Amino acid sequence: MKILQKLFTVFFILTVVLTALSGCRDSGSGRNYEFTLNLASNPGNLDPQLAADSASIEIIKNTFRGLMKRNGDGSVTPDLAESFTMSDDGKKFTFVLRENVFWLSQNEFTASVSAEDFVYAFRRMFNSASSSPYPEDFLCIKNAEKIINGDVSFAKIGVTAVDEMTVEFELEYPYAGFLELLTHTAALPCNEEFFVSTKGRYGLDPGTSISNGAFFVDDWNYDPYWHENFIHLSKNKLNYQPAYLTEEGVEIAAVYDILPSGIHYDIKSENEDSADFAEGDIEAFKLFDYDKKELAGKTFIAAQTKTYALIANPESEISDPNLVQALGIFTKNFEFESELIDGKTLERATALIPKAVMVSGKSYRNMVSDASVLDANTNPQIMWQSAMESYPDGLGDVKITISENFPDSSLIYSLTDSWRETFGTNFLVEIVSSEEYKIKKESQSYDMILAEISSEKNDVKNYFDIFTTDDNSITANLLLSETAASLNDMVGYIKNAETIAVSSGKIIPLFYGYEYCIINENADGIEYIPFSKELIMRKAEMF
Fold first, then answer.
1. What pTM, to 2 d.p., does this model score?
2. Among 2.40.30.30, 3.10.25.10, 3.40.50.150, 3.10.105.10, what is the CATH number of 301-517?
3. How confident is the model over 310-343, as pLDDT tens digits?
4. CA separation, residue 250 to residues 7, 99, 245, 247 (Å)
5. What's 378's DSSP letter?
6. Cα separation of 411 and 426, whole Å?
7. Are 241 and 257 in contact (CB under 8 A)?
8. Which architecture characterizes domain 2-283+520-542 according to CATH?
9. Which residue in 268, 263, 273 sits closest to 62, CA to CA?
């Protein structure tokens, strides 16, 4: 039966591809270009249920499709899900899969993607023998916590195949972030037949890697002692279904149009990206810190992923919450002057979480207002003087430590000059190398430090790491947000946590900062997903 099914699948695939290609409306202006990019490291494992490093995740996101996907603008939309429904109680999601989506590997394994592929993937993830690092990210699914605790079998995870093209998820509780959770690599499907055939080497080389997405791995060379390492992806033509015209002139819309012919990744240090781009050897690269020289005259995608904030050392006298609040109130109304502000470099921060952070596919920052409850009408000088009564000998010099990598140190000098004039305390700015900055931060050898608060994934909780160990009210609100049944409730709990954090007298948010993807001016359609640092290339063209 499986042989007949495979023969039918291959026949159908060839029919679809040949029909599409024969009538494809391809101008030839930007399609079928092979892009070259750099990867900073060798992918560790192209197994979606195990992969954790950024190189692996970028390859996986270009070779797999899941039920939902995150777009370059941060929104979450259906991918393999042709449609989905949610039960009235919010505890059951039913997804109908798109038809005519296929698995393909280097050794020409082919099969249709089915609901069972998702069931098998989640069972693998929750099977402790797999050693997946991700089960705790999916605690909202029925029986997840019981499986993790060893109380029930991994086969009891609340994911079932209703029929060949319908998969159903049962949740322990209504969770507003569930659709966003399905964009995670661990939620991608796994074909059981192919997985078993790899005999424990799934995703470790071209022959044991598979694709149900835009590209498949057709070559992969890595030797840590050799300098010309690479991984090559070719178009998965089984899933190439562009728009075309029938003989009757009827336009058939694109099901899954893959524009590049392939992607060649050279595995080399990030330090070589800029030079390779200038030489035309690569079409895009990522820049995580501001560099005016690198940005000048180039086309780029900017993502606001970080917050620069002054943090007081808890062992220093300046950590007195009333003193920090007085500085914060003054700073809220302070007029910074810099050509870097309000462009794509820095933006005045009104709270803790920057705009690129998404909650259920929407920008959290756009959904809420200023999180500060510090009363701007309070006279900060009076507040400072009142607090200083506890320090009859004064504070002495207060040292502000900043890294040489901060885009514009003059901003901090102008602020501390005004603090000095207003409060009568001597604030000194010290600029240190990135190495020394790291040492001072870890050893808390500072009075106040300009910290870059960021995250390696789209998770608001990561922006509260400096608070959650000793701020029970912040922790409580973040925990409530994880089980919120509605988006409004989820955002409300996060807003509560953010308000408490900003008004705690421990931190003064100053600026939101960006990271960038630099792209060739003749390229179009490259999507950059911040946090996970992915370049999604399915729609990329070169004109």
1. 0.86
2. 3.10.105.10
3. 999 999 999 999 999 999 999 988 999 888 887 7
4. 29, 21, 5, 7
5. S
6. 17
7. yes
8. 3-Layer(aba) Sandwich (3.40)
9. 263
